[in-house]
Protein backbone atom coordinates (compact mmCIF):
# COMPACT_ATOMS: atom_id res chain seq x y z
CA UNK A 1 0.00 0.00 0.00
CA UNK A 2 1.10 3.52 -0.57
CA UNK A 3 2.53 5.51 2.34
CA UNK A 4 0.06 8.34 2.00
CA UNK A 5 -2.74 5.95 3.11
CA UNK A 6 -0.88 4.81 6.19
CA UNK A 7 -3.29 4.57 9.10
CA UNK A 8 -6.38 4.91 6.86
CA UNK A 9 -8.86 2.31 5.57
CA UNK A 10 -8.40 1.48 1.87
CA UNK A 11 -11.57 1.57 -0.18
CA UNK A 12 -12.54 -1.71 -1.87
CA UNK A 13 -12.65 -2.30 -5.61
CA UNK A 14 -16.01 -1.22 -7.04
CA UNK A 15 -16.40 -4.61 -8.78
CA UNK A 16 -16.28 -6.63 -5.57
CA UNK A 17 -18.89 -6.63 -2.84
CA UNK A 18 -17.98 -4.91 0.35
CA UNK A 19 -18.60 -8.10 2.38
CA UNK A 20 -17.81 -11.58 0.98
CA UNK A 21 -20.93 -13.76 0.62
CA UNK A 22 -21.26 -16.85 2.80
CA UNK A 23 -20.93 -19.96 0.59
CA UNK A 24 -23.17 -23.01 1.03
CA UNK A 25 -21.62 -25.80 3.01
CA UNK A 26 -21.40 -29.13 1.08
CA UNK A 27 -23.19 -31.93 2.94
CA UNK A 28 -20.29 -34.36 2.60
CA UNK A 29 -17.68 -31.87 3.86
CA UNK A 30 -16.56 -32.36 7.42
CA UNK A 31 -16.41 -29.41 9.77
CA UNK A 32 -13.46 -27.27 8.92
CA UNK A 33 -10.89 -26.79 11.63
CA UNK A 34 -9.47 -23.32 12.43
CA UNK A 35 -6.15 -22.14 11.10
CA UNK A 36 -2.97 -22.84 12.83
CA UNK A 37 -2.06 -20.44 15.62
CA UNK A 38 -1.00 -17.06 14.34
CA UNK A 39 -2.73 -17.34 10.94
CA UNK A 40 -5.56 -15.03 10.03
CA UNK A 41 -8.74 -16.05 8.11
CA UNK A 42 -8.47 -16.22 4.33
CA UNK A 43 -11.45 -15.02 2.30
CA UNK A 44 -12.76 -17.19 -0.49
CA UNK A 45 -12.18 -16.48 -4.17
CA UNK A 46 -14.47 -17.11 -7.08
CA UNK A 47 -18.08 -18.32 -7.29
CA UNK A 48 -17.58 -21.09 -4.72
CA UNK A 49 -16.12 -18.80 -2.07
CA UNK A 50 -15.53 -20.52 1.25
CA UNK A 51 -16.83 -19.26 4.55
CA UNK A 52 -14.12 -17.78 6.81
CA UNK A 53 -13.11 -19.84 9.80
CA UNK A 54 -14.97 -19.02 12.97
CA UNK A 55 -13.08 -18.28 16.11
CA UNK A 56 -15.05 -20.96 17.94
CA UNK A 57 -13.87 -23.76 15.62
CA UNK A 58 -11.18 -26.08 16.96
CA UNK A 59 -7.66 -25.67 15.73
CA UNK A 60 -6.82 -27.76 12.70
CA UNK A 61 -3.64 -29.22 11.32
CA UNK A 62 -1.14 -27.12 9.50
CA UNK A 63 -1.86 -26.28 5.86
CA UNK A 64 0.07 -28.02 3.10
CA UNK A 65 2.90 -26.08 1.51
CA UNK A 66 1.14 -25.63 -1.87
CA UNK A 67 -1.14 -22.59 -1.82
CA UNK A 68 -1.68 -21.99 -5.53
CA UNK A 69 -3.19 -25.47 -6.33
CA UNK A 70 -6.30 -26.76 -4.57
CA UNK A 71 -8.12 -30.03 -4.94
CA UNK A 72 -11.80 -29.79 -5.70
CA UNK A 73 -14.27 -30.82 -2.99
CA UNK A 74 -15.89 -34.22 -3.14
CA UNK A 75 -19.10 -32.90 -4.58
CA UNK A 76 -17.63 -31.43 -7.73
CA UNK A 77 -14.85 -29.70 -9.45
CA UNK A 78 -14.14 -26.17 -8.44
CA UNK A 79 -13.89 -23.51 -11.13
CA UNK A 80 -10.43 -22.57 -12.19
CA UNK A 81 -9.16 -19.20 -10.96
CA UNK A 82 -6.20 -17.50 -12.62
CA UNK A 83 -4.07 -15.85 -9.97
CA UNK A 84 -1.50 -13.14 -10.45
CA UNK A 85 2.05 -14.04 -9.47
CA UNK A 86 2.68 -13.45 -5.80
CA UNK A 87 5.69 -11.96 -4.15
CA UNK A 88 8.05 -14.53 -2.68
CA UNK A 89 7.27 -13.62 0.89
CA UNK A 90 3.53 -13.76 0.21
CA UNK A 91 3.84 -17.16 -1.46
CA UNK A 92 5.69 -18.62 1.48
CA UNK A 93 3.18 -17.32 3.97
CA UNK A 94 0.27 -18.85 2.08
CA UNK A 95 2.06 -22.12 1.55
CA UNK A 96 2.42 -22.54 5.26
CA UNK A 97 -1.36 -22.36 5.65
CA UNK A 98 -2.52 -24.47 2.72
CA UNK A 99 -5.79 -26.38 3.15
CA UNK A 100 -5.68 -30.15 3.79
CA UNK A 101 -6.79 -32.71 1.21
CA UNK A 102 -10.30 -32.59 2.52
CA UNK A 103 -10.72 -29.10 0.98
CA UNK A 104 -11.38 -27.14 4.10
CA UNK A 105 -10.35 -24.62 4.96
CA UNK A 106 -10.32 -23.24 1.41
CA UNK A 107 -7.13 -21.99 -0.18
CA UNK A 108 -6.15 -18.34 0.24
CA UNK A 109 -7.51 -15.99 -2.38
CA UNK A 110 -5.48 -15.45 -5.45
CA UNK A 111 -4.76 -11.94 -6.63
CA UNK A 112 -6.76 -11.41 -9.79
CA UNK A 113 -5.26 -10.33 -13.03
CA UNK A 114 -5.53 -6.72 -14.04
CA UNK A 115 -9.09 -5.96 -14.90
CA UNK A 116 -10.46 -9.31 -13.69
CA UNK A 117 -13.29 -9.45 -11.28
CA UNK A 118 -12.08 -10.13 -7.80
CA UNK A 119 -13.29 -10.19 -4.29
CA UNK A 120 -12.66 -7.43 -1.88
CA UNK A 121 -9.28 -7.57 -0.21
CA UNK A 122 -9.27 -6.14 3.29
CA UNK A 123 -6.51 -3.53 3.91
CA UNK A 124 -3.41 -4.67 5.63
CA UNK A 125 -2.93 -3.25 9.10
CA UNK A 126 -1.04 0.04 9.14
CA UNK A 127 2.59 0.01 10.12
CA UNK A 128 3.04 1.24 13.66
CA UNK A 129 4.19 4.85 13.98
CA UNK A 130 7.08 5.92 16.15
CA UNK A 131 5.79 7.09 19.49
CA UNK A 132 7.37 10.59 19.38
CA UNK A 133 4.02 12.19 20.15
CA UNK A 134 4.11 10.73 23.64
CA UNK A 135 7.37 12.51 24.48
CA UNK A 136 6.07 15.84 23.19
CA UNK A 137 2.85 15.39 25.13
CA UNK A 138 4.85 14.64 28.29
CA UNK A 139 6.95 17.82 27.89
CA UNK A 140 3.84 19.93 27.28
CA UNK A 141 2.16 18.45 30.29
CA UNK A 142 5.18 19.23 32.48
CA UNK A 143 5.30 22.83 31.20
CA UNK A 144 1.59 23.31 31.84
CA UNK A 145 1.98 21.87 35.31
CA UNK A 146 4.91 24.20 36.13
CA UNK A 147 3.02 27.21 34.74
CA UNK A 148 -0.03 26.33 36.78
CA UNK A 149 2.02 26.01 39.97
CA UNK A 150 3.82 29.34 39.31
CA UNK A 151 0.57 31.11 38.56
CA UNK A 152 -0.98 29.71 41.69
CA UNK A 153 1.90 30.91 43.85
CA UNK A 154 1.80 34.37 42.23
CA UNK A 155 -1.92 34.63 42.80
CA UNK A 156 -1.50 33.52 46.42
CA UNK A 157 1.26 36.12 47.01
CA UNK A 158 -0.77 38.89 45.36
CA UNK A 159 -3.81 38.02 47.44
CA UNK A 160 -1.80 38.14 50.66
CA UNK A 161 -0.04 41.39 49.69
CA UNK A 162 -3.31 43.12 48.89
CA UNK A 163 -5.09 41.84 52.00
CA UNK A 164 -7.93 40.67 49.85
CA UNK A 165 -8.36 44.02 48.08
CA UNK A 166 -8.25 42.32 44.70
CA UNK A 167 -5.43 44.49 43.17
CA UNK A 168 -1.88 43.46 42.32
CA UNK A 169 -0.59 47.01 41.59
CA UNK A 170 2.57 47.95 43.53
CA UNK A 171 2.85 51.70 44.21
CA UNK A 172 6.09 53.55 44.97
CA UNK A 173 6.61 54.67 48.53
CA UNK A 174 6.75 58.31 49.53
CA UNK A 175 10.02 59.96 50.59
CA UNK A 176 10.37 59.88 54.38
CA UNK A 177 9.38 63.14 56.01
CA UNK A 178 12.60 63.12 58.08
CA UNK A 179 14.91 63.01 55.03
CA UNK A 180 18.01 65.14 55.57
CA UNK A 181 21.05 65.67 53.38
CA UNK A 182 24.32 64.59 54.91
CA UNK A 183 26.65 67.35 56.15
CA UNK A 184 29.35 68.14 53.62
CA UNK A 185 27.23 67.53 50.54
CA UNK A 186 26.93 70.41 48.08
CA UNK A 187 23.21 70.70 48.80
CA UNK A 188 23.78 70.87 52.56
CA UNK A 189 26.58 73.44 52.25
CA UNK A 190 24.56 75.57 49.84
CA UNK A 191 21.48 75.49 52.06
CA UNK A 192 23.58 76.65 55.02
CA UNK A 193 25.43 79.39 53.13
CA UNK A 194 22.76 80.91 50.87
CA UNK A 195 21.00 82.95 53.62
CA UNK A 196 24.34 84.73 54.23
CA UNK A 197 25.09 85.54 50.57
CA UNK A 198 23.70 88.76 49.04
CA UNK A 199 23.23 90.23 45.57
CA UNK A 200 24.50 93.81 45.24
CA UNK A 201 23.00 96.40 42.90
CA UNK A 202 25.26 99.41 42.35
CA UNK A 203 24.20 102.60 40.55
CA UNK A 204 26.37 105.58 39.83
CA UNK A 205 25.45 109.11 40.86
CA UNK A 206 25.45 110.38 37.28
CA UNK A 207 22.43 111.24 35.18
CA UNK A 208 22.60 107.93 33.38
CA UNK A 209 22.41 105.95 36.61
CA UNK A 210 24.80 103.31 35.28
CA UNK A 211 25.81 100.43 37.49
CA UNK A 212 26.13 96.71 37.72
CA UNK A 213 25.41 93.60 39.68
CA UNK A 214 27.76 91.72 41.97
CA UNK A 215 27.80 89.50 45.04
CA UNK A 216 28.89 89.79 48.67
CA UNK A 217 28.59 87.88 51.93
CA UNK A 218 27.83 88.68 55.56
CA UNK A 219 31.06 89.32 57.48
CA UNK A 220 29.68 89.99 60.98
CA UNK A 221 26.44 90.51 62.89
CA UNK A 222 26.81 94.31 62.76
CA UNK A 223 25.82 94.24 59.09
CA UNK A 224 29.20 94.45 57.35
CA UNK A 225 29.28 92.94 53.85
CA UNK A 226 32.55 91.99 52.10
CA UNK A 227 32.78 92.19 48.31
CA UNK A 228 35.11 93.28 45.48
CA UNK A 229 36.11 96.89 45.01
CA UNK A 230 35.21 96.79 41.31
CA UNK A 231 31.61 95.78 42.19
CA UNK A 232 30.95 99.03 44.08
CA UNK A 233 33.44 101.39 42.43
CA UNK A 234 30.78 103.01 40.21
CA UNK A 235 28.60 103.91 43.22
CA UNK A 236 31.42 104.96 45.55
CA UNK A 237 31.04 108.67 44.77
CA UNK A 238 27.43 109.81 45.07
CA UNK A 239 25.83 106.59 43.86
CA UNK A 240 23.43 104.19 45.55
CA UNK A 241 23.82 100.62 46.74
CA UNK A 242 21.16 98.04 47.61
CA UNK A 243 21.65 94.55 48.99
CA UNK A 244 19.18 91.69 48.48
CA UNK A 245 19.21 88.47 50.53
CA UNK A 246 18.20 85.03 49.29
CA UNK A 247 14.76 85.43 50.90
CA UNK A 248 14.09 88.44 48.67
CA UNK A 249 14.43 91.13 51.35
CA UNK A 250 16.40 94.21 50.28
CA UNK A 251 18.33 96.81 52.32
CA UNK A 252 20.20 99.98 51.50
CA UNK A 253 23.97 99.98 52.07
CA UNK A 254 26.92 102.39 52.08
CA UNK A 255 30.65 102.00 51.46
CA UNK A 256 32.81 101.70 54.58
CA UNK A 257 36.12 101.46 52.74
CA UNK A 258 37.75 100.29 49.51
CA UNK A 259 41.16 98.85 48.68
CA UNK A 260 41.80 99.20 44.96
CA UNK A 261 45.10 97.32 45.00
CA UNK A 262 43.58 94.33 46.78
CA UNK A 263 40.21 94.62 44.99
CA UNK A 264 38.41 94.39 48.33
CA UNK A 265 35.59 96.59 49.65
CA UNK A 266 33.43 96.59 52.77
CA UNK A 267 29.78 97.78 52.91
CA UNK A 268 27.44 98.25 55.82
CA UNK A 269 23.67 97.86 55.82
CA UNK A 270 22.00 101.10 56.92
CA UNK A 271 19.23 99.22 58.72
CA UNK A 272 20.78 95.84 59.42
CA UNK A 273 18.24 93.19 60.46
CA UNK A 274 18.74 91.17 63.59
CA UNK A 275 19.87 87.58 63.46
CA UNK A 276 22.46 87.93 60.68
CA UNK A 277 24.63 84.83 60.30
CA UNK A 278 28.21 85.57 59.18
CA UNK A 279 29.85 82.93 57.01
CA UNK A 280 32.72 81.11 58.75
CA UNK A 281 36.19 81.95 57.45
CA UNK A 282 38.62 79.18 56.55
CA UNK A 283 42.41 79.14 56.21
CA UNK A 284 43.52 79.70 52.62
CA UNK A 285 47.13 78.80 53.46
CA UNK A 286 46.06 75.19 54.06
CA UNK A 287 44.11 74.80 50.84
CA UNK A 288 45.48 72.06 48.58
CA UNK A 289 45.20 71.60 44.84
CA UNK A 290 42.31 69.23 44.19
CA UNK A 291 40.19 70.38 47.16
CA UNK A 292 36.50 70.74 46.38
CA UNK A 293 35.11 74.24 45.91
CA UNK A 294 31.62 75.77 45.87
CA UNK A 295 30.98 79.20 44.38
CA UNK A 296 27.83 81.21 45.09
CA UNK A 297 26.86 84.36 43.26
CA UNK A 298 24.67 86.12 40.70
CA UNK A 299 26.23 85.40 37.30
CA UNK A 300 24.72 87.72 34.69
CA UNK A 301 22.21 88.83 37.34
CA UNK A 302 20.98 85.30 38.17
CA UNK A 303 20.95 85.49 41.95
CA UNK A 304 21.64 82.58 44.30
CA UNK A 305 23.46 80.49 41.71
CA UNK A 306 25.60 77.64 43.06
CA UNK A 307 28.44 76.07 41.06
CA UNK A 308 31.08 73.54 42.02
CA UNK A 309 34.64 72.61 41.10
CA UNK A 310 38.07 72.13 42.62
CA UNK A 311 41.16 74.15 43.41
CA UNK A 312 43.10 73.77 40.17
CA UNK A 313 46.15 75.85 41.20
CA UNK A 314 47.52 78.02 44.01
CA UNK A 315 49.63 81.19 44.17
CA UNK A 316 48.58 82.20 40.67
CA UNK A 317 49.72 85.83 40.07
CA UNK A 318 46.78 87.76 38.63
CA UNK A 319 46.43 91.43 37.75
CA UNK A 320 42.91 92.77 37.14
CA UNK A 321 41.32 96.19 36.65
CA UNK A 322 38.56 97.84 38.64
CA UNK A 323 36.34 98.26 35.59
CA UNK A 324 37.14 101.92 35.11
CA UNK A 325 40.73 101.51 33.97
CA UNK A 326 41.94 103.89 36.69
CA UNK A 327 43.95 101.31 38.64
CA UNK A 328 44.87 97.64 38.76
CA UNK A 329 44.72 95.09 41.52
CA UNK A 330 47.12 92.24 42.14
CA UNK A 331 46.59 88.94 43.88
CA UNK A 332 48.35 85.64 44.41
CA UNK A 333 45.11 83.91 43.59
CA UNK A 334 43.44 80.60 44.20
CA UNK A 335 42.56 79.16 40.80
CA UNK A 336 39.34 77.16 40.47
CA UNK A 337 37.40 75.52 37.68
CA UNK A 338 34.07 76.23 39.36
CA UNK A 339 31.97 78.23 36.91
CA UNK A 340 32.48 81.94 37.63
CA UNK A 341 30.99 84.63 35.41
CA UNK A 342 30.36 88.39 35.54
CA UNK A 343 28.10 88.90 38.56
CA UNK A 344 29.93 86.27 40.64
CA UNK A 345 32.49 88.91 41.61
CA UNK A 346 32.68 89.51 45.36
CA UNK A 347 30.92 86.23 46.19
CA UNK A 348 32.37 83.56 48.45
CA UNK A 349 34.42 80.57 47.31
CA UNK A 350 33.68 77.86 49.87
CA UNK A 351 35.41 74.63 50.79
CA UNK A 352 33.58 71.34 51.37
CA UNK A 353 32.81 72.31 54.98
CA UNK A 354 31.16 75.61 53.95
CA UNK A 355 33.96 77.88 55.14
CA UNK A 356 35.06 80.83 52.99
CA UNK A 357 38.52 80.25 51.48
CA UNK A 358 38.44 83.06 48.90
CA UNK A 359 36.57 85.94 47.27
CA UNK A 360 35.76 85.33 43.60
CA UNK A 361 37.30 88.21 41.70
CA UNK A 362 38.39 87.50 38.12
CA UNK A 363 38.18 85.06 35.25
CA UNK A 364 40.40 84.18 32.34
CA UNK A 365 38.49 84.55 29.10
CA UNK A 366 39.09 83.66 25.46
CA UNK A 367 37.15 86.78 24.43
CA UNK A 368 33.51 87.72 24.14
CA UNK A 369 32.86 85.82 20.89
CA UNK A 370 29.57 85.11 19.13
CA UNK A 371 28.37 88.68 19.69
CA UNK A 372 28.28 88.44 23.47
CA UNK A 373 28.88 91.72 25.27
CA UNK A 374 30.56 89.98 28.21
CA UNK A 375 32.87 87.00 28.28
CA UNK A 376 31.86 83.83 30.10
CA UNK A 377 33.65 81.19 32.10
CA UNK A 378 36.06 78.82 30.41
CA UNK A 379 36.93 77.06 33.66
CA UNK A 380 39.65 79.45 34.84
CA UNK A 381 38.41 81.52 37.76
CA UNK A 382 40.51 83.35 40.36
CA UNK A 383 39.75 84.18 43.98
CA UNK A 384 41.52 86.41 46.51
CA UNK A 385 42.78 84.17 49.35
CA UNK A 386 40.60 84.73 52.39
CA UNK A 387 43.56 85.23 54.74
CA UNK A 388 44.54 88.30 52.74
CA UNK A 389 40.93 89.51 52.36
CA UNK A 390 40.33 89.16 56.10
CA UNK A 391 43.29 91.41 56.94
CA UNK A 392 42.15 94.01 54.45
CA UNK A 393 38.55 93.93 55.68
CA UNK A 394 39.65 94.46 59.27
CA UNK A 395 41.77 97.46 58.24
CA UNK A 396 38.88 98.99 56.31
CA UNK A 397 36.43 98.52 59.19
CA UNK A 398 38.90 100.10 61.65
CA UNK A 399 40.23 102.99 59.58
CA UNK A 400 38.39 103.03 56.25
CA UNK A 401 41.76 102.90 54.48
CA UNK A 402 43.87 100.01 53.26
CA UNK A 403 47.46 99.37 54.37
CA UNK A 404 49.92 97.75 51.95
CA UNK A 405 53.25 96.05 52.65
CA UNK A 406 56.10 97.38 50.43
CA UNK A 407 59.80 96.73 49.73
CA UNK A 408 60.64 100.34 48.75
CA UNK A 409 61.66 99.62 45.14
CA UNK A 410 60.14 100.22 41.68
CA UNK A 411 60.15 97.19 39.37
CA UNK A 412 59.49 96.79 35.64
CA UNK A 413 55.84 95.81 35.14
CA UNK A 414 55.94 95.18 31.40
CA UNK A 415 58.48 92.39 31.04
CA UNK A 416 58.05 88.76 31.93
CA UNK A 417 60.56 85.96 31.91
CA UNK A 418 63.46 85.51 34.30
CA UNK A 419 62.09 87.60 37.17
CA UNK A 420 61.19 91.13 38.32
CA UNK A 421 63.85 93.66 37.43
CA UNK A 422 64.37 96.75 39.59
CA UNK A 423 63.98 99.74 37.26
CA UNK A 424 66.75 102.25 36.65
CA UNK A 425 64.50 105.17 37.57
CA UNK A 426 61.27 105.49 39.57
CA UNK A 427 58.00 107.25 38.70
CA UNK A 428 58.47 110.94 37.87
CA UNK A 429 62.25 110.63 37.92
CA UNK A 430 62.44 109.54 41.58
CA UNK A 431 64.98 106.93 42.67
CA UNK A 432 63.84 103.35 41.91
CA UNK A 433 65.19 102.20 45.29
CA UNK A 434 63.84 104.34 48.15
CA UNK A 435 66.74 105.65 50.20
CA UNK A 436 66.92 103.96 53.62
CA UNK A 437 63.90 101.89 52.63
CA UNK A 438 63.44 98.11 53.04
CA UNK A 439 65.14 97.20 49.71
CA UNK A 440 68.03 99.59 50.26
CA UNK A 441 68.63 98.16 53.75
CA UNK A 442 68.64 94.66 52.24
CA UNK A 443 71.40 95.70 49.78
CA UNK A 444 69.28 95.68 46.58
CA UNK A 445 70.25 98.03 43.69
CA UNK A 446 68.74 99.15 40.35
CA UNK A 447 69.19 96.46 37.73
CA UNK A 448 68.94 93.57 40.20
CA UNK A 449 66.51 90.83 39.05
CA UNK A 450 64.44 89.32 41.86
CA UNK A 451 63.81 85.60 41.04
CA UNK A 452 62.22 84.34 44.27
CA UNK A 453 60.30 85.90 47.15
CA UNK A 454 59.53 83.90 50.27
CA UNK A 455 60.30 80.66 48.45
CA UNK A 456 57.92 81.38 45.54
CA UNK A 457 59.29 81.77 42.02
CA UNK A 458 58.99 85.25 40.50
CA UNK A 459 58.76 85.74 36.73
CA UNK A 460 57.51 89.36 36.46
CA UNK A 461 56.74 92.59 38.30
CA UNK A 462 53.03 91.72 38.83
CA UNK A 463 53.92 88.34 40.30
CA UNK A 464 56.32 90.03 42.77
CA UNK A 465 53.64 92.48 43.92
CA UNK A 466 51.11 89.67 44.25
CA UNK A 467 53.46 87.81 46.58
CA UNK A 468 54.37 90.91 48.60
CA UNK A 469 50.67 91.59 49.28
CA UNK A 470 50.14 88.18 50.79
CA UNK A 471 52.22 89.38 53.75
CA UNK A 472 51.87 92.09 56.40
CA UNK A 473 54.01 95.12 57.07
CA UNK A 474 56.93 94.16 59.30
CA UNK A 475 57.28 90.59 58.00
CA UNK A 476 60.84 89.41 57.23
CA UNK A 477 61.05 87.66 53.88
CA UNK A 478 64.00 85.99 52.09
CA UNK A 479 64.71 87.21 48.55
CA UNK A 480 66.78 85.54 45.81
CA UNK A 481 68.16 87.80 43.06
CA UNK A 482 70.67 87.94 40.23
CA UNK A 483 73.32 90.63 39.72
CA UNK A 484 75.85 90.61 36.89
CA UNK A 485 75.09 86.93 36.21
CA UNK A 486 75.59 85.83 39.82
CA UNK A 487 72.88 84.61 42.19
CA UNK A 488 72.60 85.92 45.73
CA UNK A 489 70.09 85.98 48.59
CA UNK A 490 69.11 88.55 51.19
CA UNK A 491 66.37 89.24 53.72
CA UNK A 492 64.01 92.20 53.55
CA UNK A 493 61.77 93.58 56.31
CA UNK A 494 58.58 94.86 54.70
CA UNK A 495 57.51 98.45 55.15
CA UNK A 496 54.00 99.85 54.73
CA UNK A 497 51.97 102.33 52.73
CA UNK A 498 48.52 103.60 53.72
CA UNK A 499 45.81 104.33 51.20
CA UNK A 500 45.61 103.92 47.44
CA UNK A 501 47.06 107.31 46.46
Overview of the structural elements:
By secondary structure, the protein is α+β, with helices and mostly antiparallel strands. It contains seven helices and 19 strands. It has a six-stranded antiparallel β-barrel with strand order 1-2-3-6-5-4. A hairpin with a 5-residue loop joins strand 2 and strand 3. The longest helix is centred in the N-terminal third of the chain and has 30 residues.
Structural class: alpha+beta
What portion of residues belong to β-strands? Answer: 15-25%
Biggest pleated-sheet summary:
6 strands, antiparallel, barrel
Arithmetic mean pLDDT: 75
Give the end-to-end Cα distance, rounded to a whole number of Å: 126 Å
Can you write the helix and strand succession as a string? Answer: HHHEEEHEEEEEEEEEHEEHEEHEEE
Oligomer status: single chain
Shape: globular
**Main sheet: which strands, in order across?**
1-2-3-6-5-4
Number of beta strands: 19
**Spans of 5+ residues with little confidence (pLDDT < 50)?**
1-102, 111-119, 368-373
User: How helical, in percent, are the residues?
Assistant: 10-25%
Give a nutshell description of this structure.
This protein is of the alpha+beta class.
Task: Annotate the secondary structure layout.
Layout: H1 88-95, H2 132-161, H3 186-193, E1 197-203, E2 211-218, E3 224-227, H4 229-232, E4 240-244, E5 250-259, E6 264-269, E7 292-297, E8 305-321, E9 328-336, E10 348-350, E11 356-363, E12 381-385, H5 386-399, E13 403-406, E14 420-421, H6 438-441, E15 449-453, E16 456-457, H7 461-468, E17 476-483, E18 486-493, E19 495-498
